[in-house]
Amino acid sequence: MTSSAARPGPLRSTLFLAITGLLAAPGALAQTAQDAASTAPQSSSSARALDAVTVRGEYIPEPMAQTSEIASFVTREDFQRTGDSDAAQALTRVTGLSLAQGRFVYVRGLGERYSSALLNGSALPSPEPLQRVVPLDLFPSSVLDSITVQKTYSVRYPGEFGGGVIDLQTITVPDEPFFNLSVGTGGNTETTGKRGLTHYGGGDDFWGYDNGTRKMPRELRDAIATGNRVDGAFFSQQELARIGRSFVNAPLTLLQETDSVDPDVSFGGSAGYSADMGSFRMGFIAVAGFENKWNTRNGVQQEGANINDVLEVRTDYDFRSTQNDAKVNVLLGTGLDWGQHKVNLTTIYVHDTIKETRSREGFDELFGEFVRDDYTEWFERDMVNNQIAGSHSFGEYDDLTIEWRGSFSKARRQAPYERGIRYRLVDTGTEQYYVHSASREQNYTRFSTVDDKVVSGGVDVTWRLPVEREAILSGGLSYSDNDRSAESREFRFLALNGPLPELVQRQRVDFLLSDYNISQGYLTLRETTGSSGAAAYDATLKVKGAYLQAEAEIVPALRGTVGVRYEDATQAVRPYNLFSAAVPQAAPPLANDYFLPAGTLTWNFAENQQVRVGASKTIGRPQFRELAPQQYLDTDSDRLFIGNPYLFDTEIRNYDARYEFFFDQGGSFTAALFYKDLDRPIESIVNEAGGTIQQTFINVPRAELYGAEVDFRRYFDLPIQADWWGQKRLYVGGNYTYTKSEVKAKAGDVVYPLGFNGQPVDALQFVRVGSAMQGQSQDIANVQIGIEDEASRSQLTLAATYVGERISARGRPGQPDFVQRPGTMLDLIARKGIDFGGTEVTVSFEARNLLGTEYQEYQELGGGRVDINRYDLGRSFSINLSAAF
């Protein structure tokens, strides 16, 4: 047996020390690894003694072996097994992760604000008006190679870390050329072939692009350009009538019921090519896809009141909503590889549009009448991310490595012609009909935009020290500049010249808002956009970071990593007045710098077992929208949000420990404990302003979170011997996370709620001491059972996910908290490979939510229950055909 000429990797140093000890002459223990390796052929006795060497860590898989942190990994194999269409869905299979609103990932019960999302190590912009964190449903699994979820902090990453870092890795340059095409269709039992709501919109709505129908009218743009509010104080009645008549009417206002909602469709393709060019190797890759999906919800929305400590329903709506989601994605990549040097350029474009038509009717206690509210909405989101990255190694054994990256990303959200109108039910005893008076019942038309961009860059240097025991020193610099601008304009057609004639009040909506009624003076356009910064803001977050980290083998089988990160950040939200030069009152910028230490120990005590422990200090910053005093309607919950400019950073202390045991055939068992102490975490509270219920944000004094998680996965050979059965094997995987959290406050603690002009208020008036943190589920579990046959390219997987109850928002004083119950989702995924005329064809089938779990958000008190939002999700089925050429 002869030793390898290559230097051992960082987690194989136990083997290296054993070899060195056996081969080295007495007194020569200071030899380097290279010297020891070169002496191996000179000693036959030493060579025979190698047979007895115990190799520790030999069976630990590469992802686990290459990181010193507690982490989870989602690979392309996992994407194929579970059939998840985007990153958000795929991450629900990871231990301790759950999904909120179908887009945002909660890690270990901490909300999306405590988790950062990176694309190939670079920060991302967000097109969402309420969150700075990017929604992960934007990233289809077809453009992803893997996802890393790191649950213990490493100083290499940004300091904004609470639950974890989610790093999405895109497909890289291929090893050999390929070309794939796919097409699919599907449906939902609550939607496909059933009656649904829609509005016409524009001719290109199917593709998710507006053809100009929703473009703000030139007459309105010209009026806005004057800098004046568009109302009777600055414009004549004739001018207002001309502007009002320019609004698109029937295509964007009239709700229609379809007899049968169309099935879902999707198609896409990918291609890659690489070639050797002398000492260089160059490659290209392209991925493109499109999908169009429909989703109808039928349910209830209620509001309640505390009557003698019993919660009673006071406002009760039945609602129907049909949503059409069209998504386009494109990824282009090119790479150049020469020796120890690599440079990659990647561009990813995602365009996601939601067209929603909804209506609700029922008794509104505040209004005092039976009413109907109709809405038509169009939310168009797009993101373009350009990245360039390089890696350069020097030395025979890559002793010195320099990695660098640069990224420019832009995200945009447009919501033109958000329309809502309320009708009141009139019951004469002989007939019932709805009316709209344009005074007591009102309507609105909104135009809003969010522009978000991120410029970032960084460099990391790793130096493998020339010492006996392996030691690695690394350091780096990073910079990120995130800028956002947001603006919302609102307009109403009101009966300002006297009551509307009764026949006009009873007209269909497109007749009601017609040019004739506007020209006759029955309806007058008035801008109702908020002032003093309530409708527009600019925001910025600039972060400069530097870190230094050392990783070394302390004693055989025990490795340590210790480092510190320094971050200097300035975050500011600057509301501005759309109608005057007066500068609205704003809180001072959050300008902070931090030293953030982190350390881990890894004890590799057996060939396939190890224990990790870690401790760190990290931070969580408020999101832009949480700081901006601008109202925003969340269409998922139909609740009004408004930011609080008097928020602070959250400081977090993290402690983790995990045992890892790896079997053969890729099996593993892990068990972990974790604890987090949060100083001034941000929570959402519900309050009432002038009869309007809205959510805002505060820093509660303190919270703690702790729990445990276990994960098991293994392949089993099945004891069936038959030709027809083939070489099938059974896959079993599962994980469970238990989390407990508690919000804390004591006498003398203060908070800074919205409406108190930055003055401190007794925390016990706003904090529910002992309650769980928002978004934290006590129990999260995943189970996967599958049968696979690599020879026949077939796979059948049954996957179940359970997420326990969690608080979605604090109830207003005297009322219980809002609680979500995600429940259990059971999915079946099947894949089968077929050779068709020399072409590899794969047929896949997916059945989602087989148990028919419904969405529930509610309040309970004294035996009374109020369903804030409750609707059937339905069961979804899809089939996909892909071919590899």
TrEMBL record:
Its main location: membrane. Residues 67-165 form the TonB-dependent receptor plug domain. The keyword rRNA-binding does not apply. Gene3D superfamilies: TonB-dependent receptor, beta-barrel domain (2.40.170.20), TonB-dependent receptor, plug domain (2.170.130.10). It is found in: Cell outer membrane. InterPro entries: Beta-barrel_TonB (IPR000531), Beta-barrel_TonB_sf (IPR036942), Plug_dom (IPR012910), Plug_dom_sf (IPR037066). Keywords: Cell outer membrane, Membrane, Receptor, Signal, TonB box. It comes from the Bacteria. Belongs to the TonB-dependent receptor family. This is TonB-dependent receptor domain-containing protein. It comes from Coralloluteibacterium thermophilum.
